Here is the input.
Amino acid sequence: MDWKRRQVLYAGGGAGFLAELASLGLLRPAAAREQTPRAGFVAKTVADVLSASGLAGAADSAQVQLEAPEIAENGAVVPLKISSDLPRVDRIAILVEKNPVILSALFDLPEGTDPSIATRVKMAETCRIIAVVRSDGKAYLASKEVKVTVGGCGG
Amino acid sequence: MRIRASVRDGVTEAKVLMQHPMETGLRKDESGALVPAWFITEVTATHQERVVLRAQFGTSISANPYLAFHFHGGKPGDRIVVSWVDTKGDRRSDEATIA
Amino acid sequence: MRRAFLHAVGIVLAVILAKPAGAGGDEDVQDTSAGIERYRQMLGEANPAELDEARGEQIWKTAAGPAQATLERCDLGLGPGVVKGAYAQLPRLFADTARVQDLESRLITCMMKLQGIAQADIVAKPFSTSTVRSDIEALVAYVTAQSRGMPMHVPLDEPQERQAYSLGERLFFYRAGPYDFSCASCHSQDGRRIRLQELPNLTTKAGARHAYTTWPAYRVSQGLFRSFQWRLNDCFRQQRFPEPVYGSDATIALTLFIAANANGAIYNGPGIKR
Here is the structure.
């Protein structure tokens, strides 16, 4: 089967997915197109990522909690936990401000699933991690600067 | 995949470890050649056949991804299934019962 | 001779005095240490080494080699097939090979004797790369995890075991290579570090216990699980020593020296490191 076609089938016809693969050198640019579920993954600024992900206008809120270490020994694996007291959260996004691809992950939460996620992200350099949640159609965020360093030789 | 799920006070916590190199497409291998991007793009988790989480991953989720999430309505013995798809079209699926 | 000594002292001083970039003083170092401790703690909550443990268990139970046998009759010191607690008493003397052996060399013995696989094939690529996974490293993850929660107790009852300890000690302090380094150059005093990586003092009980119980480990910087043979190999590389032979008497002796110094520590299963 033609490899590109197989990708489209698996992505459920998501054309933005093709744009993303094209930007990663996995597809010829001609195959790329516009708007879609994965549009956030090709957006180049935090604001564009948020708009593309249905999270435009996200405001800082103490009701979103982002737990991440102050300093990460290795930027390849930075653990984080996101939680929120807000009601009816249906989407959570993780952004890493200075990464080549800013949007790290997008989570869709059906009813009955708590706004409580933990995962690990790659960070290219010291910058802010931004956690965004959508509650009742409005977006809220919390952010934290994580220092990224490389340890010494042993260990 | 390693999935562990346990329920307490009505909330089920599921912790998943997935085996995947999550290549960004920016790394060079031992010979200096760029290693092509290859990463998990979607993860779906179900509880008793009902979807409890859909995740879309990008290249900046760490290698051998870890994911923990929480939902209501689970009981010990219930079945949790986690599946992923990656950019090569590979799929994996694994299941666990709630402890 | 004296020049080499002064040269080495200079390097050692540079190591002791190295500060993290931008650090202002001791308080900064303290904050950084606390921050890193928190990072390690969060990482410890789920260790990708578990994936290697599962893979290792599968390899252990899968028929392989010309003999098409599994490793389930492998004797790691507590009897054929007994995996639980086996790592906690390694390295030790084995009657069938008349050698003091560590876990990796014992796995090689079993793969050769039970499965008929040639030694050269096993040691050709003992360490995983991003494209090829090492079976031995997965087996190490599986076996070491089965000693989780148990106290380390390397026996030093047999004369050969005590000789291996002495040899390990001598190798630990033996200066060689273009920089005249020995293991002791970095690992024989408290409170040393290279940039932000602290260097445990392997000559003390406390240092050896901390270091030895956190290996083998999943290394996040490599996205791979690493065994103690790998750790020694990498230290040799950093000292600009010739590459040690995998599972050689020298590497086993060094392992036994550190492991015996760590005796009594509770082993908490494969670690996770930067």
About this structure: The interface with chain C takes residues 67, 69-74, 76-79, 118, 120, 147, 149-155 of chain A (CB under 8 Å). Strands of chain A lie at 59-60, 64-67, 71-72, 78-84, 89-96, 103-108, 113-121, 127-135, 138-148. Residues 9 and 90 of chain A are 26 Å apart (CA to CA).
